[in-house]
Design goal:
396 residues, alpha+beta, 3-stranded mixed sheet, 13 helices, 13 strands, 37% helix, globular
Length: 396
């Protein structure tokens, strides 16, 4: 099959359409749109950082104009989606549950060998969950024998719960404060769910299709990341088979020198963008692979909450801002929920000349973001473009 040749702009449009960011409301409105987003992307990463609204809710609010965070909770409670650690922790459509089984088997086979005491503790923890239903870490007595040495130095009961979860013996739901509840699958899985483990070939094709479905255009690097915890996965071999069968296309993008790129053969190439402005989560599917942002969007981005404070350039939790197919700015923001103020510590614009219509849409995006974070007003502290900030303030 002949390579598909695209301009960088055409490639960006395909990528944004796959991410659900061709226009605001691409998946409709209301609770049913939340399921459509997750089913389309296949995986929505969650994060506990609460500086502004949590990442998974930001993903939804960027794509669903009338989004209510309660809708995501309802989907989980109704058994339409489930939480698991694929490449990261996130939500998946429940009908994909069987494709989590190879990963759980891999965690079981390749995990750290257990001592007799650890095996006994895991059995005790599982037996309690089986008898009592959903449990939190706080439902177990403090079983640490020594003082904690850091964030990831978990107490034994927490380690047991997490290992039981990763190996598939327990599942996770969340309470109103987003704390984990551990429960046995029997209590959470719909009775009609297929529990047949996929073959290695089926699992590899699932990874390929889901990755390309969400990214639009991808190298094997991103597919391998999604499958990295499954030892001896067959992604590379099945990629070649799918190419030979005509399920995939190879892609060349003008001006880019990259490893081979692929897309699904049945995806539409002609995509139009509405030019809408989106304030995105750092953990949005569009942003999780930094090299892709550089390659396709000429945007050098890094979330700096993991960077030592003296080395930060833009701020602790800097959010990318997209207009059409161009990243125009990033803002370091915090929701002061007590005083109902959105605090924008730093609004840094890229080296671009923005038209008035873009400034107007950006102001509208700020208003939506303020409301979404349950705030009533906004305070801007710092910007590299006072002229743009003055223009934005005129809309408030």
């Amino acid at each position: 099959m002949q390579d598909l040749r695209l301009s960088k702009q055409e490639a960006r449009r395909i990528i944004l359409n796959a991410a659900g960011l061709a226009y605001r409301g691409q998946f409709g409105t209301g609770p049913e749109a939340v399921y459509k987003v997750i089913n389309h992307l296949g995986f929505v990463q969650l994060d506990t950082n609460y500086v502004v609204e949590r990442a998974h809710h930001q993903v939804m609010a960027a794509r669903i104009p009338d989004y209510n965070p309660q809708w995501l909770t309802e989907l989980a409670n109704e058994g339409e989606i489930f939480e698991f650690f694929m490449s990261e922790a996130g939500y998946l459509p429940m009908h994909d549950f069987r494709f989590s089984l190879p990963l759980k088997e891999s965690f079981t086979l390749n995990g750290k060998p257990l001592t007799p005491a650890e095996k006994a503790l895991m059995k005790q923890v599982f037996d309690r969950a089986e008898r009592e239903g959903p449990l939190m870490v706080t439902d177990f007595e403090q079983d640490r024998l020594q003082a904690s040495t850091g964030w990831w130095d978990w107490r034994p009961a927490k380690v047991a719960l997490e290992r039981l979860y990763l190996e598939g013996h327990l599942m996770i739901t969340r309470n109103k404060t987003f704390k984990k509840l551990y429960d046995v699958p029997l209590n959470l899985l719909p009775p009609e769910i297929d529990l047949t483990p996929p073959t290695p070939q089926e699992h590899a094709r699932y990874i390929i299709r889901r990755t390309l479905g969400a990214l639009g255009i991808s190298s094997i690097k991103e597919m391998a990341w999604r499958a990295r915890f499954v030892k001896s996965n067959m992604v590379k071999a099945e990629l070649e088979c799918m190419l030979a069968e005509g399920d995939l296309k190879t892609v060349n993008v003008d001006g880019l020198k990259t490893s081979p790129l692929y897309m699904l053969a049945d995806r539409v190439n002609e995509v139009q963008l509405a030019g809408d402005v989106f304030i995105l989560s750092p953990f949005d599917i569009l942003n999780v692979f930094r090299h892709r942002l550089k390659q396709f969007f000429d945007f050098d981005y890094q979330i700096e909450c993991f960077v030592p404070a003296p080395k930060r350039k833009y701020g602790y939790f800097s959010l990318p801002i997209l207009a059409g197919d161009t990243f125009i700015a990033r803002m370091d923001a915090k929701a002061d929920r007590k005083n109902k103020q959105l605090l924008i510590h730093n609004l840094h614009f890229e080296d671009l000349n923005l038209e008035d219509r873009v400034i107007e849409k950006l102001a509208g995006a700020f208003k939506n973001f303020i409301f979404f974070n349950q705030c009533l007003d906004v305070t801007f502290t710092k910007t590299n473009r006072p002229d743009y900030l003055t223009a934005i303030r005129a809309y408030f």
